[in-house]
Design a protein that fits this description.
The protein has 197 residues and is mostly helical. It has helices at 2-22, 31-44, 48-59, 68-78, 82-108, 112-133, 139-159, 169-175, 179-192.
């Protein structure tokens, strides 16, 4: 319970940082304040747990993904070192596939409002991954492609009930995704990288 409350607190902190970062527009003269918010988000994205909290805040709300503030966020993400790029890429491909699977689950349960929320997260995550993958020279762009390939292999392995150890195998087993959910996850990954994989 305490861990859940701590994570919720981190999500709230991420939302506050995003709120301040998004409050600056193109004509803002407060460069120092903007640089401070930029630095604050950069520091917040220092480990897997805070990065997960950040993506929950950013992807499950209606923050624009095509304005100057979003470009600043993309720049911060793209400039992370190789170790953090691995973590960010894994979180993003998991978000994409989990939201795809949850659309199926919510619809099976007759919860169309929750299915719509999962669809929104899936679409926002797809847009973020597409944008970050445009720079093929960045560590994050490469990691996103590699993690997607690894997850696709794990989905195929799970479908065949193959016992071979591989990345993402525990992730899929932990959530016990059914065949329809695995199909939805695979479709999301394949459609995302159809032109580059």
């Amino acid at each position: 319970m305490e861990r859940a409350e701590s994570f919720r607190s981190q999500v709230d902190s991420a939302a506050e940082i995003l709120g301040r970062l998004y409050s600056f527009d193109d004509d803002s003269n407060s460069n120092n304040a903007e640089a401070k918010q930029h630095h604050q988000l950069d520091q917040f994205l220092r480990c897997a747990e805070t990065a997960r909290a950040f993506f929950v805040a950013w992807l499950s709300a209606d923050w624009p993904l095509d304005n100057e503030a979003a470009m600043r966020v993309f720049e911060i993400l793209r400039n992370k070192d190789a170790n953090m790029a691995e973590i960010l890429a894994e979180i993003l491909v998991k978000n994409l596939t989990m939201s795809s699977a949850m659309v199926i689950r919510h619809r099976q349960d007759g919860k169309e409002d929750l299915a719509k929320g999962s669809l929104d997260v899936r679409e926002r995550t797809r847009l973020v991954i597409e944008h970050l993958s445009e720079d093929r020279n960045s560590a994050l762009g490469n990691c996103l492609k590699n993690k997607s390939t690894e997850l696709l292999a794990a989905i195929e392995s799970a479908r065949l009930a193959d016992e071979k150890a591989m990345p993402f195998k525990d992730f899929l087993a932990r959530w016990n995704y059914d065949g329809n959910q695995l199909d939805a996850m695979e479709t999301s990954l394949n459609s995302l990288f159809k032109t580059s994989c």
